[in-house]
Design goal:
Elements lengths: L1 H36 L4 E8 L17 H19 L7 E11 L2 E11 L12 H10 L15 E5 L1 H9 L46 E6 L2 E8 L4 E4 L13 E5 L10 E8 L13 E5 L26 E6 L15 E8 L1 H4 L13 E5 L15 E5 L5 E9 L10 E5 H12 L2
């Protein structure tokens, strides 16, 4: 009887173990399946062009800062926006940007940006939905000011590296100074970037060394807390709210000239100036100035950004870039170990202060940038970092500093930035820059 009882007991134990193993496997499978369904959207870039038959090319289209270039580009971008905002990809479409206008009647070259939630639908099938919508919608397009040659339509997926080169600067050429050719005079101007031919943009989000030489890491006890922007050899601008919890400058340092968060010694801060009317409750006037204890020497990877004048105007939908080491997800995840860059577009203040977005929270000391659809945004750890745009002569200007937002990259909640044009006089008063 004992032998029988032991066999029964052994069978029961074996059955229990099998059930437990099956349950564990089931849980693992569920997590794998859920994980695959909730993977982060993947950025996909496209380069395209077409010929506009009813427009004649003029020399004014050569310069991207000319009135003629801007006016025609705005019409083309409106056409491209409508193409995808009225399609099944409306929630995944982010950006259209005209890069150049060439002769042949007029041939615009442009970049499109999508964030595709399910990457298996693109690139693994014979039909790319982005290309399908593009070709079908713009073939025999009516109701627009453009007579488009259907045979000229081109749209090709490109790498993030190629897209970034098109969006914010041509790749290095043979005329780019090499380290042995570089002199002190090369680094004296503001708003200029290094384009090192040995550098690359990895994965479409990592910045290369020297791409944003005004970017600083603001660290408390050696740990990155906020971003900051170099505006002279002595002064940086950042967000006032970075110091809400601690004003002790002995605990803070500034790190320049790097894209990595790996531990390196920082520069001491001699003075902190917070806007007098800043309030953490409303986020209004969220700006602070930092004066370094020792002026920095400008190098290939350390340069100031230019500041706009109070009379400068940057129109709605201006292409701009935000950079920082902040979290890559909206759930306050780990900081990025490599400086990240993201293309955004400025958003009309009336639209941003609409009930659907931020309502009466938005004041004149703020500007909004991003996308109503979400998907691209600054996040925790990016606070105080730069929002920049490229203007005439390939010069970069600071138009905002990261201030606040609801979550990160959420629909109808774009990033809100301190408005540098509105705060320009205060910066001049406090720093002389």
């Amino acid at each position: 009887m004992a032998s029988v009882a032991w066999k029964i007991t052994s069978a029961v134990i074996g059955l229990v173990i099998c059930i437990i193993l099956a349950a564990v496997i089931a849980v693992i499978v569920i997590f794998v399946v859920l994980g695959s369904k909730t993977q982060s959207p993947t950025p996909r870039y496209y380069s395209g062009s077409f010929r506009i038959l009813n427009f004649d090319y003029t020399e004014n289209y050569k310069q991207s800062n000319s009135t003629e270039f801007k006016a025609l580009s705005a019409q083309i971008q409106k056409l491209l926006d409508a193409t995808f905002e009225n399609s099944d990809l409306r929630s995944q479409y982010n950006l259209s940007q005209v890069i150049s206008l060439s002769p042949g009647s007029v041939v615009p070259e442009f970049v499109l940006l999508f964030h595709i939630a399910n990457t298996s639908k693109i690139g693994k099938s014979s039909t790319d939905p982005v290309q399908t919508i593009f070709f079908e919608d713009l073939t025999n397009k009516s109701g627009t000011p453009f007579d488009i040659d259907p045979a000229s339509l081109q749209l090709t997926e490109i790498s993030a590296n190629a897209a970034m080169n098109l969006l914010y600067g041509a790749p290095a050429t043979s005329t780019t100074p090499t380290p042995t050719q570089t002199t002190e005079e090369n680094f004296t101007g503001c708003g200029k970037r290094s384009l090192d031919p040995l550098s690359k943009i990895v994965g479409g989000t990592n910045a290369f060394l020297g791409a944003w030489p005004w970017q600083a890491s603001l660290r408390q006890n050696g740990n990155h807390k906020c971003g900051a922007t170099l505006i002279s050899n002595t002064w940086l601008v950042t967000a006032a709210h970075c110091f809400d919890m601690n004003h002790d400058l002995n605990l803070w340092t500034v790190v320049l000239g790097t894209i990595s968060l790996h531990s390196i010694s920082g520069l001491r801060i001699q003075e902190l100036i917070i806007y007098e009317n800043y309030t953490s409750k409303t986020h209004a006037n969220d700006i602070a100035m930092l004066r370094l204890s020792t002026p920095v020497k400008f190098t290939r990877n350390i340069r100031p950004v230019c500041l706009p004048e109070t009379s400068d105007i940057f129109p709605d939908d201006t292409l701009c870039f935000v950079t920082g080491w902040g979290a890559l997800t909206s759930d306050a995840g780990a900081l990025s170990q490599v400086l990240q860059q993201a293309p955004l577009k400025t958003i009309n203040s009336s639209k941003c202060s609409s009930p659907q977005l931020y309502g009466d929270v938005i004041t004149t000391s703020m500007i909004c940038a991003g996308y109503v659809t979400g998907l691209i945004d600054a996040c925790q750890g990016d606070s105080g970092g730069p929002l920049v745009t490229q203007a005439f002569n390939n010069t970069w200007f600071l138009i905002g500093t990261v201030s606040f937002g609801v979550g990160c990259a959420q629909p109808n909640k774009p990033g809100v930035y301190s408005n540098i044009i509105f705060l320009r006089n205060w910066i001049m008063e406090k720093t002389g820059v």
